[in-house]
Amino acid sequence: MALKIVKGSIDRMFDKNLQDLVRGIRNHKEDEAKYISTCIDEIKQELKQDNIAVKANAVCKLTYLQMLGYDVSWAAFNIVEVMSSSKFTYKRIGYLAASQCFHENTDVIMLTTNQIRKDLSSPNQYDTGVALTGLSCFVTPDLARDLANDIMTLMSHTKPYIRKKAVLIMYKVFLKYPESLRPAFPRLKEKLEDPDPGVQSAAVNVICELARRNPKNYLSLAPLFFKLMTSSTNNWVLIKIIKLFGALTPLEPRLGKKLIEPLTNLIHSTSAMSLLYECVNTVIAVLISLSSGMPNHSASIQLCVQKLRILIEDSDQNLKYLGLLAMSKILKTHPKSVQSHKDLILQCLDDKDESIRLRALDLLYGMVSKKNLMEIVKKLMIHVDKAEGTTYRDELLTKIIDICSQSNYQYITNFEWYISILVELTRLEGTRHGHLIASQMLDVAIRVKAIRVFAVAQMATLLDNAHLLTGNMQRNGICEVLYAAAWICGEFSEHLENPVQTLEAMLRPKVATLPGHIQAVYVQNAAKLFATILKNQEGNTDSTAAQETSQMMIDRLPLFVQSANLEVQERASCILQLVKYIQKLQQKDVEVAEEVSALFAGELNPVAPKAQKKVPVPEGLDLDAWINEPPSESESEDEQPKAIFTKEEPKHSRPRHTEVDEKELARRREARKQEQANNPFYIKASPSSQKVYQEAPGVEHIPVVQIDLSVPLKVPATTPSHPTGLPMSDQYVKLEEERRQKERAEKKKKEKKKRKEKRSGRGKKHDSGPESEEDITPAHVVDIVTEEMPENALPSDDDDKDPNDPHKALDIDLDNLLETTARRPLADSEKLPVRSHRAAGAPKSSAEDGEAENATPQEPKKKSSKEKRDKKKDKERDRKRSKEEKKKKKHKHEEKEEDLLGGQAEEPVVQSEETKEVEAQPTSTSAEVSDLDFWLSNAPVPSNTQEAATVAEAAPAPEAPAGTAADSEPEEPKDTETEESKSSKHKKKKQKKEKEEKEKKKKKKHHHHHHHSDGGGEESVQNGTVEEEEPLPPMSNYCLLAENSYIKMVCDIQGNLQDGSQVVVSVIFENKSDSFLKSMEFNVLDSLNSKLQRPEGSGPHDGLTVPFQLPPGVSNEARFVFTVQSIVMPQKLKGTLTFIVKNEDSSTHEKLDFKLHFTCTSYLITTPCYSDAFAKLLESGDLKSSSVRLEGVNMPFHHLLARICFHHHFSVVERIDSCASMYSRSIQGHHVCLLVKTSGQTVSIDAKCDEPTLLGNVLDEIKQTFSQC
Amino acid sequence: MIKAILIFNNHGKPRLIRFYQYFHQAAQDTSYCKAEDMQQQIIRETFHLVSKRDDNVCNFLEGGSLIGGSDYKLIYRHYATLYFVFCVDSSESELGILDLIQVFVETLDKCFENVCELDLIFHMDKVHYILQEVVMGGMVLETNMNEIVAQVEVQNRMEKSEGGLSAAPARAVSAVKNMNLPEIPRNINIGDINIKVPSLSPF
User: Fold this and answer.
1) Where found, per UniProt (chain B) (predicted)?
2) Structural contact between residues A97 and A62, judged by C-beta atoms closer than 8 angstroms
3) A28-34 contacts: CB < 8 A, separation 24 or more?
4) Which residue in A493, A553, A555, A478 sits closest to A523, CA to CA?
5) Residue A1238: is it exposed, middle or buried by C-beta count within 10 angstroms (0-12/13-18/19+)?
């Protein structure tokens, strides 16, 4: 019986499929976790089975568990197994699981490369489809690099189903492997006009994603997209294109002009709301880009606003939301047209939908003016009271503060009102924004001097009623307000009406429950208060009162001395001792008030938050330099602060200024203050009197004074309980209205008076008439102190672009690629790597990736140096000529250059016009720009457009097949010429030019070299042609390995940057025969020191299968990784390549022996080194030196350096005349330093290295190199 | 780009999750968080945001804090017991995505014939396969429902012709029979299974 159950359950166990699992979980609601853990155990069992069906079933279940949050990464390998099943059913399960739980750090992903490649080329389109779908989710940089070529091929698949998937996935490939963008782009562009709408849509999709991040590179596609937009009926495609245009128009206003009409048509004609909305959005973007110069642009604005109003009024909440969203975009540039819809937006504040309310709030921010600020804020305050959710209420609170404080309190006319608003806000329960309110209070009190009296009174009340706030203070942040209150009362204590009472309030025992930092402020400011009180009391010659105050301090302070907070404790003890001392003095009847208040003398000025950052670095101070030697480890983490100063250009500038009119305003205020100072009738604000009544009849220039009269400050008596029933701020609103009215009346009167008496008044600043912005004068003499900035601070808004943004890498110039073949053909190095055997740890770091990006724009310069040398003479000639030409008019010169350049210039007339423009910015894109210009400058007649589009297409994008070397050759001189003549414009002196030349050379070297190390592609495709035989092009590191009648092998050996014991050998196999070569096997006899890395499980003598076959005449590259132990000596390894030669009728087995020569050079890695580090290295004394002399070297010095750099992986540290220092590093970290000097034909190389044997060998090899030529 | 697609029910139980971006806790955070945990957190947060909204409010939500950034939006639809939430960035048209959700749900309806939550519960894999024909790698692949349904059906037919996964158990049982029986009990906790098995009630 028991056995039966066991057996049954076993059967069941294997029976359990996904449905059973789900059912089981649903039946075990109470102990789900336990049930699932048993299920996982079962799954583990199933995964151990050999049966792929069982495995697939298990993996399927794991996918479900992954969704529930269980980590299934332990089964990654099993997933790969299921992926590689030949059956579609299982494959699909495998890929699904992989796409759910694989990510870049999953290590088994490496194993999938070949499987995915196989699936991609599967005859079954659904296998391919599934692989593409899966890959789109877990593509890694390695996978992207290895598979880019295969996916490219799929973009031209016969089935649209595959094409569209391949097109879409290219975006992911670009993200991970940006180098693939240029080679793949022509084909991607082709797909924009694919017959299948799905593929077309996919291509649009991808290009839109790309263009969104780097729009300028895609500007030249505008004509094509324009054509698509006018012809397509697919709303999805239209939306994407219209969105794309929205991103492009800011870069090219003329494009916007062209777009307006078709977009307006679409707006009128379409019934799809989504399309309508996107059209409106793009029209807005267009209008923003052409802020002026459009005759009918107000009509377009009106159309947009009107359509948006329809959206906002719609009952569909979604449309309402989007309408508000778009409205806020218009608001930025055309606030007037939005402001007329204020009613509508205020209505939205009452909407039940929080998203909509938040949107409406955003809009309000831009809509306030001096006139309506109080009204809007009043409305918002009502909402604050009504709001239930704390998040929304907090949002309201921040918005109120934002609205009021924007552009330096521009819209606030009455700061008393604002302070009272802030005080009212403190009564919000449970808000998180206490600190925000507090900082506003501080800011206003410090910067608006006139308000201090009022602010201090309010803060004193707040302090007095602190218990009301602190009731639930522990969990909310509102008590932060007390921080501000205490500080304001302390700092401006001279304005306090009853300082003793406030002091008493600040020293209540209850204060001890406040957070530490607030207590600290309390204690400190109690001391300030104390000082003020002493001063007052001593003035009164009332010694007992003063002593009583001291006694109170002494009684209360011990409470704080016992505080757990160190800051509080420290301050309290200090002050306690101080007060005790004062008391002693008091008892001796010594006057102390003077000295005590001297402790807190002086005014604190507000400092702009960015001030510290903006202090310019003094000349000669290098903040990046180490003061002490850096610690050897942990240097990675503290490099961030660097960016602060480096980004800013060291130009002189004025301190930060706010808006111009604000400045103007401040100036006027200043002037007025000056007047007031000289005016005997004007009584300056003093601690006791805020109400200055002034009757002086002729002095009409200060509305302030009159208003002060009208604003009785006693109205807002006590904060928490308002006897009048109205909240205090509301009373202000009322008062303000009255005031404004009065003012208006007053002004009218004045006007009349003026007219009568014909007397020129000083207050004619205000014009009469309907109330305008200017009319509303502030209720106080408001002196908004601008925040202090350091002298010659640097004005800059920190644009914090994310350095990790993957899209930065995709900022690749594609224009030349598209439009002209001459300017910048696809360099060979840019071709996608073809299938090749990859080393497990491919020698490619992310740093190199970055370098590659930097390198791309300079692509044309890094032609193989053989060509360079060939052209050298030409260049020299060109340079002379261009120097002569320099004297001529630049315009002419450019034209000539154009002519030289472009046999392909389609529109010579347009172009010569264009050159003027181009002149200003000597980029090399004039030809392509002119295409676009042509398109843009023409009237938007459809036929014209078509034509232009076809012109754009007519210039065929270079696919650059293997062997373009020949093609690109004739173009080369033009290239260099352009470069030269352009540079000649900038350089005045020949010397300077030469210097730059040198630098350029240096750069070239680096790039050149770099491309060897990374793609290995440069020579890989064109390898066997002419490069190797000729002695002249020595700048290739590929050397002949072996050759017979069937096959030729050339190889390059590079150290692996990441692994000190690895060397990567890239071998290019070229099929020289007419037969098909297959089953190639590469084998090497390992030595003790060097071993070929073989896959796990294979024996030490097994060969490695070369992962491709060679049709006749084709070549391909494979990489092999070797492990080496000692690198100080060169090594030779014997090896064999076996392969099968297949003719149509027969096949023979052939072999080819070779000797692999590991030179010491191949262990060196080009490492840049700064001269100071280099000097330190030489000084350190750890290095052994050696030297060598080369006789009869007959080449220019920079060629010599180039050779050393290139062949021996050095980098130039410094070069002075005919002397240069160079540096390199071995994969095991040996430093190699060279000092190369030349005189005549003799070159002497002094070298230092910490490993003498290695150095000797490297020097021998250098000698060898130069003896060969 | 669509960053994630989440389907969960009115109680926040996930029915399908599909992340097109690898979300994990930033490395500098001391408590490194696994992708799975992060995903669950995102689901919880999203559910929290979405579930408290009435049905008659707008279908857009400014992104949650976890899924990150002001550039992101949650666009969702609520069907009976299920929420379909798409997390997208600003390159997607809001209304377009709403349409897409509709297309997706209608496709599900066609493929499952009157789809209900149970279909999604028991056939998560199939839902994934359908979704794969609509969205790929975070980008919209196909919006034409007929085309989607056609592709899904062809693939289902292929699966059927291969015998599907249902052939697995039979083969599994035979595999068990071929196994050395005495070895099995060692690997399995019999006690547990005895308790568990009877409580499995057939649906």
Assistant:
1) Cytoplasmic vesicle membrane; Golgi apparatus
2) yes
3) A28/B199
4) A553
5) buried
Which of A405, A406, A446, A407 has the alpha carbon at shortest distance from A422?
Answer: A405
Rounded to an integer, what distance in angstroms lies between the CA atom of residue A1071 and that of residue A1076? 8
With H, G, I as helix, E, B as strand and everything else as coil, classify residue A1197: helix
What are the pLDDT digits (tens) for A1115-1138?
888 888 888 888 888 888 888 888
* Location of structure tokens 């890694």: A140
- ipTM for the predicted complex comes to 0.83
What is the sign of the dihedral through the CA atoms of A260, A261, A267 and A268? positive
DSSP per residue over A1068-1112, as a string? EEEE-SSSEEEEEEEEE---SSEEE---TT--TTPPEEPS--B-T
Nearest to A1036 by CA among A1014, A1056, A1015, A1018: A1018
Distance between first and last Cα of chain A:
91
pLDDT in tens, A1221-1243: 888 888 888 888 888 888 878 88
Query: HSE on the CB side for A454, CA within 13 Å?
Result: 28
Interchain CB distance below 8 Å, B93 and A278: yes
CA nearest to A401, candidates A481, A496, A346, A489: A481
Angstrom distance (rounded) from CA B56 to CA A349: 16
Phi, psi (deg, nearest 5) at residue A1186: -160, 160
Question: Please, are residues A1032 and A866 in contact by the beta-carbon 8 Å criterion?
Answer: yes
Nearest to B197 among A12, A28, A274 (CB): A12
Token pair belonging to A595: 């000295």
Chain A positions touching B129 (Cβ under 8 A) are 92, 96
Taking CB atoms and an 8 Å cutoff, what residues of chain B touch A196?
Answer: none
Average pLDDT, chain A: 72
Q: Using an 8 Å Cβ cutoff, are A477 and A431 in contact?
A: yes
- CA torsion, points A125, A127, A129, A134, in degrees to nearest 10? -170
The CA distance from A208 to the nearest CA of chain B, in Å, is: 8
Closest alpha carbon to A711 in A919, A375, A434, A450: A450
Which residues in A lie closer than 8 A to residue B36 (C-beta atoms)?
Answer: 66, 69-72, 101
Question: Which of A6-15, A686-695, A740-749, A851-860 is the least confident region?
Answer: A686-695
Q: How many CB atoms lie within 10 A of CB A800?
A: 8
Contact B122 A22 (CB under 8 A): yes
DSSP type of residue A519: H
For residue A1059, the Cα-to-chain-centroid distance in whole angstroms is: 31
Contact A1221, A1170 (CB under 8 A): no
The alpha-helical segments, DSSP class H, found in A335-414 are 335-339, 342-348, 354-367, 373-386, 390-409
**What SS3 state is found at A1247?**
strand
Considering only CA atoms, which of A1217, A1182, A1181, A1176 is closest in space to residue A1196?
A1217
How much of chain B is in helix, strand and coil states, percent to nearest 5? 50, 15, 35
CB pairs under 8 A between A and B: 224
Asked whether A303 and A267 are in contact (CB, 8 A), the reply is yes
Please name the residues between 114 and 143 in chain A that touch chain B, using a CB distance below 8 Å: 126, 132-133, 136-137
Candidates A1216, A1180, A1174, A1176; CA nearest to A1198 is A1216
DSSP state string for A521-587 = HHHHHHHHHHHHHHHHHHHTT-HHHHHHHHHHHHHHHHHHHT-SSHHHHHHHHHHHHHHHHHHHHHH
Neighbour-count burial of A1087, counting CB atoms closer than 10 A to its CB (0-12 exposed, 13-18 middle, 19+ buried): middle
The answer to whether the CB of A653 falls within 8 A of the CB of A794 is yes
**pTM score > 0.90 for this model?**
no
